[in-house]
Amino acid sequence: MKNILKNITLFTLFSSIMACSLVEPVDENLLGEDRLNFDPAFAEGVLLNAYEGLVNQLYFNDAATDDAVNNFLSSYRRMATGEWNAQNPFTNKWGMYEQVLYANKFITLIDQVEWKRDEETNELFKQRLYGEAVALRALRHFWILQEHGGRGVSGQLLGIPYISEFLEFDADFNTPRLGFEETVSRIVADFDEALEYLPMDYDGDLAKRPSRYNDTNDDTYQFVFGKDQDGRINGRIIKAFKAKLYLLAASPAFMNGQGGYYQEAADLLAELLNDIGGLGGLDPNGYYNFYEFPVGTRNFPEVLWRSNASTDMTWVESQHFPPSLNGEGRLNPSQNLVEAFPMLDGFPFSEAHPDYNPENPFENRDMRLQRYILYNGNDLNGRVVSITNDGGVDGIDQISQRSTRSGYYLKKLLDQKVVISADGSISSSEKINVYVRYTDLFLMLAEAANELGGPDQMVGGMSARNIIGAIRQRAGIGLDNSDAYLSSISSQEDMRNLIRNERRLELCFEGHRLYDLRRWNLFDQTPDAKGLQFDGTNYESFTVEPRLYNANANYAPIPQNEVVRFNLIEQNQGW
């Protein structure tokens, strides 16, 4: 175990990695690292560490965008107001190389451990675990690339170092960044290799097993790849993230449509979505509150990959309920986002719209607004919130770090049934972390299809127009099949803008917009965050907080300590 600790501690190329143990030692620590070679549970703990800290919907990085502000001095608030630099890389993902290291270490252990006494079962366990480790290694590199890929000081479009082996403490850590497309190819290669070892689903379905297992005993296969493994990475998840990688590569900040990546993304997405019934597989309930589980199950059509349910996540309500309900009101949606919600008939919000009511600007609006954002007069489970300028507890306050700064509070993702008592005690709530959901994939396909040929380009029987139409109809727009605004769109550019807006609405507060704006090459153009104040009679918009991003903002910095220590790591331009 000391050698493993030394490898992590001295792996200074990735100095953000914490020097921590791979697995908890036994009390007397008599067995040491050798235990990894004969104790299956102990060895698998290394792989499970590679699963730790998966990116989920509760990052709340919206305060770094034009969608929200924080009422306290968070890292995202500092980032948005001019403190983002290579010394303060607030959205840093470089530390994920730690999980890469765990995956690579585990791969070195697989053949040394007897996982099961039966020879065939033992071999299948080895192959499944190998596939998981390779897939997780690729996934971590994807997230690091999404954060740190960009145009280097040389002007070349660069990716990241790709670490595909467990590096000993005396290895050469001065590892240069690969070219961007080479990094994409390396991630794809790992994803593809993992697909050879992992089934699409852990359901034991013999018809869906990878071809390498065709000659294995049916019962043995079903034991190793059955429902008991649900929650681990599988073929369906791999293909979803592979499509995300292709869409990232195709986007304006990177290959800008070159290299065939839009087509690769579209084909993969169409395959995944047609496998659930195409547009007929779009969850009609539009789940976004990941605590409202259908009775008797923890699975529902919207969620592709999730964590186990947990009762330890009421911090979400504690942090984001308004102060009148004994919360801290930390994330305050912006007027910018509120104005992105269209009118109820689907046309963009406008004070000139005939249905606009200046005395209540939230009337006759897309119904998602009422479900996602807590505005003046809206409620949480019947508890109406008053957000006015008369000194009320929920009113606008730029100083207290408790009340809203924008005139709005978060509603989406909060379990409205939770009760926080004045003494700080809180009722229970069971939630899940979500890593991938299907609405995201539908919107990705709409984007890729539109970029390939415009609003009506068909890919796998679906087009941008009919995907966006289905999502808007689910939201309550065009219920009579007369979404006149969508019907009026004829150009690729107009459809592009609508798709981007629908991503903004459907996926708000789930950590997507920050990376969407960056890959669209628009983050440097982020407008100031605005709010809305109400004096009891009139509503008036005001600027809450500037957005001080420079031309370099679309590519995040490499942490400066890495660049200083290792001269082969090239920094991104402007940092």
Automatic annotation (TrEMBL):
Name listed for the protein in its UniProt record: SusD/RagB family lipoprotein
Subcellular locations according to the entry: Cell outer membrane
Family: Belongs to the SusD family.
SUPFAM superfamilies, A to Z: TPR-like
Domain SusD-like N-terminal: 59-212
Signal peptide: 1-19
Keywords: Cell outer membrane, Lipoprotein, Membrane, Signal
Domain RagB/SusD: 301-575
A GO-annotated cellular component: cell outer membrane
Transmembrane domains' residue ranges: none
Main subcellular location of this protein, as a coarse class: membrane
PROSITE patterns documented for this protein: PROKAR_LIPOPROTEIN (PS51257)
A family per Pfam: SusD_RagB
